[in-house]
Amino acid sequence: MLNYAIGHFLAIAIGVSLGLLGGGGSVLALPVLVYVMGIATKSAIAMTLIIVGSVSLVGAIPHARRGNIQVKTAIVFGSATMLGAYLGARLATQPWVTETFQMLLFAVAMLLAAGLMIYRTAQSEPTQDATVDAALYRPPVCKYCWLWLMTEGIAVGVLTGLVGVGGGFAIVPALVILGKIPMRQAIGTSLVIIAANSVAGLLGYLGHVTLDWHLTVSFTFAAGLGTVLGTYLGQFVSARQLQKGFGYFLLAIAAFVLVKNYANSRTSPSSATISPLASRVSPASSPRRSILSR
């Protein structure tokens, strides 16, 4: 019961970070489900896709009202990412893709996201004459940007399907640099793309993992409440400084996940044979083991 309460408190915190920073917080959903709630990794990734997709879709509504979504770009880039997400999810259901490998890959993605977040906040504050786009991203140097956009879309989608991350840390820069659209429209469009990716990835997992729907719905609801709270608090705090601190926090979580799963890979070589079976066991019918109870 304590784990359940702590997990939902952290879900609210994830939502607050989403509301304050506009992205990045959803990457914490997977470690909370695995290490606090005790859900098997493959099931937790599928549940994360539902959570991330739902929260992103809700977050896209105000952007749509402001006209910050480019439908054509979302369709072109989103079709590539959805294909990648479905393929990544199908790949993750293969017996030779172990849970340890997925968590290690997830930690690497977290390190990348944290590094980009810290790097961007380390850049000098944009002047009044400079746009945010120019301050954070250099102009595109590619001749066929649309081709690179599709290629990155497939790669980001595969990562989404494999480890459940939304990929906003890579999608937004791609839309600004390669898609040549303004930052605000890139953020709004990325939320629609992330939601579509989540649907495609979930379709790839269905029939191969067992989901705890009660926990998924309650976790999503808690994160949604946190998003509303974070959006309100964002009017009074500097998102730039919060983003830097959150980046270092992500580094710490990524280091923990790396160390823990590297140790597991060294001490439990047989995990490669049992992890696919574990992902099919219903969380409700098997004892949950969380980091708080070890």
Describe the structure.
The chain is an all-alpha fold. It has one domain. 73% of the residues lie in helices and 0% in strands. It is built from twelve helices and no strands. The longest helix has 29 residues, at 239-267. Mean pLDDT is 78; it is low at 128-137 and 270-287.
Key features?
73% helix, 294 residues, mainly alpha
Helices and strands in order:
Layout: H1 2-21, H2 29-36, H3 41-65, H4 71-92, H5 99-122, H6 132-136, H7 145-163, H8 168-177, H9 183-205, H10 213-233, H11 239-267, H12 271-278
Helix pairs in contact: 1-2, 1-10, 2-3, 3-7, 3-9, 3-10, 4-7, 4-9, 5-11, 7-8, 7-9, 8-9
Helix percent band: over 70%
Order of H and E elements: HHHHHHHHHHHH
Q: List how many beta strands DSSP finds.
A: 0
Q: What is the total number of structural domains?
A: 1
Characterize the main sheet: none
Low confidence ranges = 128-137, 270-287
Structural class: mainly alpha
N→C terminal distance: 15 Å
Q: For the residues shown, what is the average pLDDT? A: 78
What is Rg?
Answer: 18 Å
